[in-house]
């Protein structure tokens, strides 16, 4: 039995399209996904605002709330909670050059409208967190935007969200690049600094995605540890990534098993989940995966996470202490490798 509760977003089960080719699998209706998520043992679902309310631009504020209330009923049917709502700004024609940091005041206003609607939806779904993956908040052309101005616009936008709702928590999901060239808020360090600059730092934290840390050339477990040291790790997006390449969202642990082990270990050692945090997955099936295996990458990620939890339970802290005292890191490293390889 895992000591953690798991969450997942509907986009984790997708049709296989990428930048260079069309879909390879049939689209699955969202309620069918919920049913399967519950069967697989997930406790909560993560939403984009327009996952929760498709075609969100077409509705009034009250209609959006009403649709969110209907969704809540569907979630209740499957015993699922909502974990967070994230405004999907990067898909809209209003946000071609970013949202909160767009050079157009009209577009910035639109981005705030989506952020406020995301807060409304979160309230209706019974959750208190808005995630900001700042997809297009950066530059495609370095000289097009001042990084000083852009950073201040982000802080201003977050302050407006905090003022709009006194309970809402804002959780930034940092990523150094893709789809933009240079992000304004690329790592957990950036998130912590932005948090400290807002009007209510206790309500602004981070969502660490393993692949995003790897894309920044950083160790995901250390990024998790850094945010936890500040008391600001609000959720995680566990997955994996083969080095500094295109964004891959591979199943957790399949590329970097030792790094995955250390992510599980740091979460366990520091009471992740004690305040209701979920272990979130942000994984995608490979393009070659068949329709009947649409959920395999989720099953695999859970299996790998739980197997690593068992390894972390068996971690011999006395032996580790001895190795550290003797500065025998060769022995400690081999011990970890044996633990992971199942060689006792
Ligand atoms: C991109 C991501 C995003 C976010 C999601 C929720 C589509 O690399 O990781 O997934 O996680 O939008 O914030
Ligand atoms: Mg990602
Ligand atoms: Mg993510």
TrEMBL record:
Keywords: Carbohydrate metabolism, Cytoplasm, Isomerase, Metal-binding, Xylose metabolism. One of its GO terms (cellular component) is cytoplasm. Its EC number is 5.3.1.5. GO terms for biological process: D-xylose metabolic process. It is an enzyme of class 5 (isomerase). PROSITE patterns: XYLOSE_ISOMERASE. It comes from the Bacteria. It is found in: Cytoplasm. It catalyses: alpha-D-xylose = alpha-D-xylulofuranose. GO terms for molecular function: metal ion binding; xylose isomerase activity. It holds the Pfam family AP_endonuc_2. Residues 34-255 form the Xylose isomerase-like TIM barrel domain. Homotetramer. Belongs to the xylose isomerase family. This is Xylose isomerase. It comes from Murimonas intestini.
């Amino acid at each position: 039995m895992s000591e953690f509760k798991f969450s997942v977003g509907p986009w984790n089960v997708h049709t296989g399209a990428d930048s260079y080719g069309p879909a390879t699998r049939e689209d699955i209706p969202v309620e069918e996904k919920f049913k399967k998520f519950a069967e697989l043992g997930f406790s909560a679902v993560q939403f984009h605002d327009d996952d929760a309310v498709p075609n969100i631009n077409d509705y009034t504020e009250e209609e959006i709330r009403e649709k969110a209330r209907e969704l809540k009923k569907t979630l209740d049917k499957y015993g699922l909670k909502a974990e967070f709502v994230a405004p999907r700004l990067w898909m809209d024609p209003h946000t071609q050059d970013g949202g909160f940091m767009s050079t157009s005041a009209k577009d910035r206003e639109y981005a705030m409208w989506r952020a406020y609607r995301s807060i409304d939806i979160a309230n209706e779904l019974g959750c208190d967190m808005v995630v900001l993956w700042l997809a297009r908040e950066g530059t495609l052309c370095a000289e097009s935007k001042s990084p000083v101005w852009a950073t201040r616009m982000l802080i201003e936008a977050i302050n407006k969200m905090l003022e709009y709702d006194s309970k809402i928590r804002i959780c930034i999901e940092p990523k150094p690049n893709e789809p933009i060239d240079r992000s304004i808020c690329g790592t957990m360090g950036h998130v912590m600094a932005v948090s400290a600059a807002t009007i209510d730092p206790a309500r602004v934290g981070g969502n660490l995605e393993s692949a995003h840390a790897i894309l920044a050339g950083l160790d995901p477990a250390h990024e998790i540890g850094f945010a936890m040291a500040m008391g600001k790790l609000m959720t995680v997006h566990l997955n994996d990534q083969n080095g500094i390449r295109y964004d891959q969202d591979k199943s957790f642990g399949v590329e970097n098993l030792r790094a995955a082990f250390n992510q599980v270990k740091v979460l366990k050692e520091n009471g992740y989940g004690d305040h209701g945090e979920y272990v979130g997955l942000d994984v995608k099936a490979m393009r070659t995966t068949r329709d009947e295996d649409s959920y395999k990458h989720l099953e695999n990620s859970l299996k790998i996470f739980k197997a690593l939890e068992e390894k972390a339970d068996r971690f011999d802290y006395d032996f580790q202490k001895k190795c550290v005292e003797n500065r025998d890191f060769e022995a400690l490293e081999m011990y970890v490798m044996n633990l992971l390889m199942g060689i006792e």
